[in-house]
Amino acid sequence: MRIFEEMESEVRGYVRSFPTIFDTAHGSEMFDEQGKRYLDFFAGAGTLNYGHNNPLITDALIAHLQRGGIVHGLDKATVTKRAFLTKLRDTILAPRNLHYKVQFTGPTGTNAVETAMKLARLVKRRSNIISFTNGYHGLTLGSLAVTGNYDYKDETYGSRSNTAFMPYDGFLGPDVDTIDYMRRFLEDGSSGVDLPAAVILETVQGEGGINVASVEWLKKLESLCREFDILMIVDDIQVGNGRTGTFFSFERAGIFPDMVTLSKSIGGGLPMALLLMRSELDQWQPGEHTGTFRGNNLAFVAATEALAYWESDDLSQAVLRNGELIQKELQRIADKYPELDARVRGLGMVWGIELPQSGVAGAASAECFERGLLVETAGDRDQVLKLLPSLLIEEELLREGLGIIDDALGVLVE
Ligand code: PMP
């Protein structure tokens, strides 16, 4: 670890929470430089839905490089860009009757969020943007302003203006309808909440601790947005790309957001972030919101290959099957250790086991690491163990990893 301690800024967290030096990986397994094997239930926080070094994707990348395909071309039209856009339209958008335009926004998630915020303000000529408690949208100044965890903020960043927070579904307890609450704020001129250009939300909060918004809440929010002429932005960066069992996480609610941010697994493991927008919202002037690495051709190759998984519903079925297994096993583990007061929640293949006592989830993650399982914590107090394995994980490896969580919690209650 010395080289990292000497040279890399302290700011990176994972280098310390997973203290080893990783070298190779295949599917759901990673190997460090000593050859120790780890099961990966973290999958790059949802970046590796198709696993590490998926052979279909690596073969396509190798073939592209060997034939001298364009690697970087700024935003010029290329054959690989066309192939990606065609595949996205034919495989994902058209079958869902979605007619979004696509804007490539940069290599990483926050770039898509910033683009959505800027476009909403441009289109509506209003600057306020509403987001929700415990939401996570990135840490650059615009996206930080709509990220709901106070730990990331600092007065001096000056990024809190023109945004407001509302309680997410369930945040005020099971009996409070937080959409009615929001309506009161919008209707009351003295509330200090200006009519927003947009709301931004995750339908399942990932970093916020696997908080699942109900279908009813999502539908009510969509209606409220329509009524008040507010754009609805769904941030599907972590739980899109099939994670919840459908390609977009909002499909389960039958809603149609005005904009959708995608990143992480959309690039098939390579850096890509994009914004989907209703076509009438594309009011940019040419050159108004561009940048250098927006639509990297290697990412187009990987992404096109990854989207082929959605040509049939086999992967959706696998996600639902594996999800049931995860839920059943986590519930069994929670019941086995009642002293931990554990609660299980999630859907598809995004699951959390909340361990409310201070420090327990972090200690469990460290125990899992020792036993060869990578699993991260989430939540406002890091109180949730978050499971995000590759969607393609073999059942045997899934069971093995869940067994490690069982053993790790067993050690903690001893
Ligand atoms: N939105 C969501 C829902 C995310 O989970 C993340 C990253 N965890 C981001 C935005 C920001 O993405 P990035 O870290 O790539 O900037």
From TrEMBL:
Signal peptide: none
Pathway as given in its UniProt record: Amine and polyamine biosynthesis; ectoine biosynthesis; L-ectoine from L-aspartate 4-semialdehyde: step 1/3
Cofactor(s) annotated in UniProt: pyridoxal 5'-phosphate
Keywords recorded for this protein, A-Z: Aminotransferase, Pyridoxal phosphate, Transferase
GO biological process: ectoine biosynthetic process
EC number of this enzyme: 2.6.1.76
Tagged with keyword Iron: no
A Pfam family matched in the record: Aminotran_3
Keyword 4Fe-4S listed: no
GO MF assignments: diaminobutyrate-2-oxoglutarate transaminase activity; diaminobutyrate-pyruvate transaminase activity; pyridoxal phosphate binding
Domain of life according to the entry: Bacteria
Family (UniProt): Belongs to the class-III pyridoxal-phosphate-dependent aminotransferase family.
PANTHER family tied to this protein: DIAMINOBUTYRATE--2-OXOGLUTARATE AMINOTRANSFERASE (PTHR43552), DIAMINOBUTYRATE--2-OXOGLUTARATE TRANSAMINASE (PTHR43552:SF2)
Protein name: Diaminobutyrate--2-oxoglutarate transaminase
Organism whose genome encodes this protein: Microbulbifer yueqingensis
